[in-house]
Design brief:
Blueprint (H helix, E strand, L loop, with lengths): L8 H35 L2 H25 L9 H29 L4 H32 L3 H32 L18
Helix pairs in contact: 1-2, 1-3, 2-3, 2-5, 3-4, 3-5, 4-5
Length: 197
């Protein structure tokens, strides 16, 4: 005839973490395929569509590593993982898409590979750099709020935007240099306004 209930901060935290983890898995399972479909429809080729997603994953992994290191020195909320994953997918794809599209445009105009990378770097990469700095400055407002959750979310968002910006400005040009025209391989028929001929 007894009814046993578990209460307290530890129970609430455990339940909250389980819900957040479940939501994160559902979000990733939905967001990544949808992003891939949209990228393929816009770009019209599989490698160019896959490159921004790979860069986003690299950004997320880098930001999670930096957050884990930071977590050794301060308390970090579990929700930072959700923030890093969702923001990482958004800005990682966005930033690298600018550069990949610009590179493909220049190659379609007949520029040599290195020249196309240079022009993409002087235009799209510069826009990515200033956009990243603007987002980071805007996110500093979250760090000012003196609660663990806001501080964690702010730091996670700043780290993943910085990681996405760094990967787009360094790793992406190197990947384009290695891939060359293979970035336009595996064309998808009937789609892709920006497909390089």
């Amino acid at each position: 005839g007894f009814r046993v209930l578990v209460v307290g901060d530890a129970s609430v935290a455990k339940e909250t973490n389980e819900i957040a983890e479940s939501d994160l898995v559902k979000g990733e399972a939905f967001a990544v395929p949808v992003a891939m479909v949209i990228l393929v429809l816009v770009l019209g080729v599989l490698p160019a569509a896959l490159l921004p997603v790979i860069l986003a994953v690299v950004s997320i992994v880098l930001a999670l590593g930096l957050t884990a290191l930071l977590g050794q020195a301060m308390e970090v909320s579990f929700f930072v993982v959700n923030m890093i994953t969702m923001m990482g997918l958004a800005v990682g794809i966005d930033y690298s898409l600018f550069i990949v599209a610009r590179y493909r445009e220049e190659r379609a105009l007949g520029r040599e590979k290195i020249d196309a990378i240079g022009i993409a770097g002087a235009t799209a990469s510069r826009a990515v750099f200033f956009s990243g700095l603007t987002v980071i400055l805007a996110l500093i407002g979250m760090v000012i709020v003196p609660t663990t959750i806001f501080l964690s979310l702010g730091i996670g968002a700043i780290l993943v935007v910085f990681s996405a910006m760094a990967a787009s400005l360094t790793l992406l040009p190197a990947a384009l240099s290695l891939m060359g025209d293979r970035v336009n391989a595996l064309k998808v028929p009937f789609v892709g306004r920006m497909s390089a001929e």
